[in-house]
Design goal:
two-stranded antiparallel sheet; alpha/beta; Rossmann fold
Length: about 160
């Protein structure tokens, strides 16, 4: 899965790979008029019911299942949802994880990351401080440790996983 485009076949293959590790979440259709909108139907995919509370679990599993995870495990910088998903995926796959989050990360997300057994580092005021310019706190930590760096949306495998919804 290392080619540079996202195709229907790639999305299907990604879904087949992650399927054993994710929940099939429900779709709900509602009348938009119930929300003061026009007479149309709205369709919601309830990814908040995913194991980690968001669709980010799809990308986290894809990243960890399609790449070689070294003994040092995985490292990620996140505002919260990606960190929770990486921590969950690493726990399920029996791999160590270190997650860097900013000080504004919600207490609920901090609890979930810790609960999934990841080493949690709270630092910086914003996630941008953690991930700007390729000189991230996570990269600095990882230098010399050879952990797999998991990025939230930049990798094509993550994008294909998000489209598998």
């Amino acid at each position: 899965m290392h080619n540079a485009e996202i195709t229907r076949d790639r999305i299907t293959a990604t879904y087949q790979l992650i399927r054993p590790h994710i929940r099939r979440t429900p779709v709900v259709e509602v009348d938009a008029a119930d929300f003061g909108l026009g007479p149309i139907n709205l369709i919601f995919k309830l990814e908040l019911l995913q194991h980690s509370g968001s669709f980010k679990a799809r990308g986290a599993f894809t990243n960890l299942l399609t790449r070689t995870i070294p003994p040092a495990g995985v490292v990620a910088a996140s505002g919260g949802n990606h960190g929770v998903a990486v921590a969950f995926a690493a726990m399920k796959l029996g791999r160590p994880a270190r997650i860097f989050v900013p000080t504004v990360c919600s207490a609920e997300k901090l609890e979930r990351i810790r609960g999934y057994g990841a080493d949690l580092v709270v630092t910086g005021e914003r996630v941008g401080v953690l991930v700007c310019g390729g000189n991230t706190t996570a990269v600095d930590f990882n230098h010399g440790r050879a952990a797999l760096q998991s990025e939230s949306a930049e990798q094509l495998s993550t994008q294909a996983a998000a489209k598998s919804i």
